[in-house]
Design a protein that fits this description.
globular, about 10% strand, about 350 residues, 6 strands, alpha/beta, 16 helices, single chain, 6-stranded mixed β-sheet
């Protein structure tokens, strides 16, 4: 049975606004999104005399609304001694990424997915004026190809620095010690651990989802960004899990390796570092999907005895939620106006 879309579990006001987002954007310029709600927590050990550390959820996209860091995030980075992102790029990172991204010589992704899906992909690329990407996609492994294909909704984000990059750059500019909670080799090992047939099925699911999104005008990339700007870590996790086809039994080990096992590694290494560095403070920035849930980094650190406190405080977050509720209504009004114009023009 297909897992229920997380959108159906949103509050009604949020659901209406996000579902209408894509079509409203085409009809009329949307109002500016409100002040982002940062996914930021202060991490305090049992020893109250020890400096606090910080946990921050990121999104691996270069949307300027997300990469404009909230002042609380900037202050936390400046207050820390060490800044960790998911990994620090080694000197041979380009070679490592290339080796894990492309299929062996003689293999074609379009042949692996079959002509029907290949035709759908060509249509999607043509609709967005990105036909030149076709030969490049054809050479790619299914999982990285899913990421690249998903970017055609917002092609201007390709090559832009994501939130992780902005965090690292700010740390470097302020002479912070820079590191990673994982290694690039570890991430690549996870991404290449899935069986090729299962990876192809996952890619086909991505093609189906993108086709459905474009037909309905929902704009899944924009919805993911908006849920991030809202500061909704549980929604970020839900979107990630749905996109990974968790109902496929052959993908269960891959999902565990990609999400839950990495969460355990992140929490263990963070806890070990904090305990071994009583007079220093760590700022850890990882993908927002790693934060929420029973097996998320927040819960795992709390189980290890740390106290995690959301920043900013509840009153400030409530005020920001009011701004977002007003924005939801503005988006809905724009869509209703568009529908009214279309109806009267028939």
């Amino acid at each position: 049975m297909k897992q229920q879309s997380p959108r159906s579990r949103l509050s009604s006001a949020v659901a209406v606004a996000t579902i209408l987002l894509g079509t409203a954007a085409r009809a009329q310029e949307l109002p500016p999104t409100p002040t982002p709600v940062p996914l930021l927590w202060r991490v305090e050990p049992l020893d109250q005399n020890q400096k606090p550390s910080y946990l921050f959820g990121t999104i691996h996209l270069g949307d300027r609304r997300a990469t404009s860091l909230a002042p609380q995030v900037t202050d936390a980075i400046l207050a820390s001694d060490v800044v960790w992102t998911e990994y620090q790029e080694p000197e041979n990172s380009d070679q490592l990424i290339a080796e894990s991204t492309f299929l062996p010589d003689g293999q074609s992704l379009m042949e692996l997915v079959g002509e029907d899906y290949a035709a759908t992909i060509r249509d999607l690329l043509a609709e967005t004026g990105m036909e030149s990407m076709g030969p490049f996609l054809d050479r790619m492994q299914p999982i990285p190809a899913s990421v690249i294909l998903g970017s055609i909704e917002r092609p201007e984000l390709l090559g832009e620095d994501g939130v992780d990059d902005v965090v690292e750059d700010l740390g470097i500019e302020n002479d912070k010690e820079i590191g990673g909670v994982e290694t690039l080799e570890e991430q690549i090992a996870v991404l290449t651990s899935v069986d090729l047939d299962a990876a192809v099925r996952m890619f086909k699911r991505s093609v189906d989802d993108l086709s459905s999104s474009r037909r309905s005008g929902e704009g899944e990339t924009e919805q993911l960004i908006v849920s991030y700007l809202r500061g909704d870590e549980e929604q970020q996790l839900a979107e990630t899990l749905v996109g990974l086809s968790p109902e496929d039994p052959e993908l269960v080990p891959f999902v565990d390796a990609l999400v839950w096992n990495r969460n355990r590694i992140m929490a263990n290494r963070t806890a070990d570092w904090i305990r071994a560095n009583e007079d220093r403070s760590l700022f850890l920035a990882v993908g927002a999907a790693h934060l929420g849930g029973e097996g998320g980094v927040i819960s795992l650190l709390e189980k290890k005895g740390f106290t995690l406190t959301r920043i900013p405080d509840e009153k400030t977050r409530a005020q920001l939620r009011v701004e977002w509720a007003r924005w939801d209504l503005q988006v809905a009004e724009i869509e209703l106006e568009r529908l009214s114009r279309n109806s009267s023009g028939r």
